[in-house]
Amino acid sequence: MYLTDEQRKYLEGRLHEERARVVRDLNRLVGDLSDGTEQDRSSDLTKVPLHMADLGTDTIDTEINASNATRESDELKEIDRALDRLVKTPERFGICEDTGEKIPYARLEVIPWARTCKEADGES
């Protein structure tokens, strides 16, 4: 088997840490998006923006939060899939899905949900 029991246990811990971080971030982002109206979020006293640029800024902020929430949700799915692979097929965990080669352990330490040897599966 490619990874030792100690390495797999460490990576499982890292996956749980990363999962907790993503869930925390996702809850904050979703909370920001659902926290009242646009007017409430911007603390405006009136529905009419003082300047059109204010309206644009508020819209961009909302779109960025929504985009980040989508990205975090996708990352959460990848982490959950990695945890599933680690439990169900530990002998395949850390093996590149594209080439069948071993994913470098240093890469797995940084991105424990990595599925490939290269940065091709959407990680940041």
Which helices and strands occur, and which strands form pairs?
Blueprint: H1 5-34, H2 38-42, H3 52-88, H4 105-110
Helix pairs in contact: 1-3
Tell me briefly what this model is.
The chain has 124 residues and is mainly α.
What do these coordinates show?
The chain has helices spanning 5-34, 38-42, 52-88, 105-110. It is mainly alpha-helical. It contains four helices and no strands. Helices cover 63% and strands 0% of the residues. The chain has one domain: Four Helix Bundle (Hemerythrin (Met), subunit A), CATH 1.20.120. The model has no long low-confidence stretch (mean pLDDT 84). The chain starts with a helix and ends in a 14-residue tail after the last helix. It is elongated, with a radius of gyration of 20 Å.
The biggest beta sheet, please?
Answer: none
CATH class bucket: Mainly Alpha
Intertermini distance: 28 Å
Helix content: 55-70%
Count the E strands.
Answer: 0
CATH-derived architecture: Up-down Bundle
Number of continuous helical runs: 4
- From N to C, what is the helix and strand string? HHHH
Q: Any low-confidence stretches, pLDDT <50, length ≥5?
A: none
